[in-house]
Amino acid sequence: MNRIIIYFFLISIFSLSLKVHAGSTTNNETTSAIPKVEGPITVDATLDEPQWQQAKRVLINNISRPYDNIPSPVHTEAWLMEDGETFYIAFIAEDPNPESIRAFYRDRDKSWHDDLVGIKIDSFNTQRTAYRFFVNPLGVQIDGIENEITKHESDSWNGIWQSKGQITEQGYVVEMALPLRMLNFTEGLPEQEWGIELVRFYPRDVPLRLSNIYIDRNNHCEICQLQPMKGFAKAKQGNNLIVTPALVTTMHESKGDDSWQQQNKANPSLDLRWGITPDVLFNGTLNPDFSTVESDQAQLSINTTFALFNQEKRPFFLDNADYFDSNYNLVHTRNINAPNYGAKLTSRINDHSIGILVADDDNTNILIPGNRNSSVATIEEKSTNLALRYQYNINQDITLGLINTARVAKDYYNAVQGFDGVVKLSDEDTVKFQHVYSATEYPDDFYAQFCDSEDSTDCAQNAVTECDLESCVKNEQVLRSQKDGAFSGIASKVSYRHRDEKWQYHANFQKQNAGFRADLGFISRVDFERWLVGADRRWYGEEDQWWTEIKLYSDWDITHNDNGELIEKEWDFKLSMHGQYDSWFELVYTNRETVGARYDKSTVAIDHNTSLFEQNVMRFNMVITPISGLRFGNFVSYGDKIDYTADRAGKGPNITNEVVWNASKHLEIKLKHTFNQLDIDGDYLYNARLTDFRATYQFDVQSMLRFTSIFNNTSRNVNNYPFYAPAEITQNNKDLSVQLLYGYKFNPQTVFYLGFNSQGYGENEYDTIKQNEKSVFVKFSYAYLK
Asked: Are 592 and 600 contacting, i.e. CB atoms less than 8 angstroms apart?
């Protein structure tokens, strides 16, 4: 019945949108022309070539945030021109106090708190996605892609382009050259028409976002409001061929009982990016490196029941990754752990876009989801991974899509297929929906990885062994993975959102039944159905006030399993404020009723098999930049918790403190400390502390030296674990990882890295850290552009 109601609701909205809202307009319809020039241009931020005298000049004189389209206090001009192969943009950013300009040498995509100028480009003018390119006054680049349908903004995408910046007595000047070969657009048209916004970020006591266009607060879609600009007559993307060979050599040592074991590796790889036609892009990879350089963000995992999320970092998988986005995360390529090859085809022709991905994997890691926990299992077999995504923009207000994914290995497969869409009813009202179906089959002994035997030893010992169901102590992961033959399931999402200048309210429905699996994606919860409603009210400050925005927000949600048994009911209240010194404050109160661990782990039943805990939690969050180059963050919560090892109620704080200090133009120091404590019956159960320290000396835009230290120190009260003997609990454990890295980055794909990694551990409070792993690595890659 729920499914019938949802489908009827969607059909009604679809019809209404066709009748009422087709052909909506924006406030920035005046079209400008970008002139075409000839002759060589050197990107040096001096603008002394005669071609710049022909450039289109555009004023960036409107404050779009935090104030409502009022005149800018500083003068900014953008100059635009193109030569058929490159789009040139220059910014002249005046400043009455040049000594106040915030500009530091940082790695790519790390300068969001600096003074910045840049451009957003919707190169198909479909109001769905936009490239963004920003540069700070020293020439440091930021680039990425915004997706209006998913509301996802990512800096993961990296293009190869040029920029220079210099600070002057009047402010600063930035010059950018964007090769057309790195942009997707329809080639060969008599004239291109792109949506463009020119932006300046002016961070002072109150950070200002300046724009050349009027941004309507009553229109939730900012990409829809970009200004149309014409030019690039018969523009072509050229050969659009990038071949990037790479080599990673590693000398790794690990310590056994008494001696060190050494292993040396040399891993060559190859990435290919080829524009087969102007509308079709092919990416290929052989043996891609799994990010020896960039380590994951440190996370605490104690007393957590769901798998942690890690971001993708490999260039092959990141390029045009937005083609596979949908309301569900069904293509999370980080799951493809050790590919030998990969191929990807992406294309956008008129109102149609398609993405096809295929890759193998030496080991098949699979996330086993549940409604109270999730864990990762492994099939020690090679797998083939496939993804197909298609979207059709019916008009400016309606987008429909199809998605298919598959993973196949010996005695295993998972296939997902479904449809989704976005319907824009008005500038303020949007509906999103997605419905997917999965079919899955696991190997017969797959569940054995989660078995515990009666004597509490690990039945599977981290690998699939001879472990029959009779000798296995069941738990949720065993029950979710022990399947007799193939099984199937569905997942559905429907959401409605209204947003105007002052009010935002939304309603969501989400269901993922017990049989649903999306093994190529990141879906950590199944066997649940959730309804949510929420709203917020916003107030905006004036120029002479110390605060710029205040928001009052509340939502309520309720979650049941497939059998209608209550899992959780929650009410949130939030008060947040933005103000001077680039500050943000948030006060949150949560009242929650939620179930704990199951009494009888041999069943997934909730009623009469769990305790219902009432939790009251207060949170206070704050970020502030009191002076240029110094930023503090403080995130504190205190309230009720659950001890999942014994299904008991407790209390305790979670505290994260973070400081980022630019000690000079070149040196940045980051320190982040997380503290998590759980108290049970007046005594502590554990104290977990995680310290992440990073110091980076950026010699210039291209080269840097970075030191990273991540220290995890956890103490447990062995006398407060009622179901375990003291000998079964590690009272203290410490882990320390250290990395020293030198990097030279000519562009995002032509790089040289030299690094040293070390891992160590300790198990007693007064133990010194014992080193158990160390490695030295060198990575070199070079991008050949044609």
From this structure: no
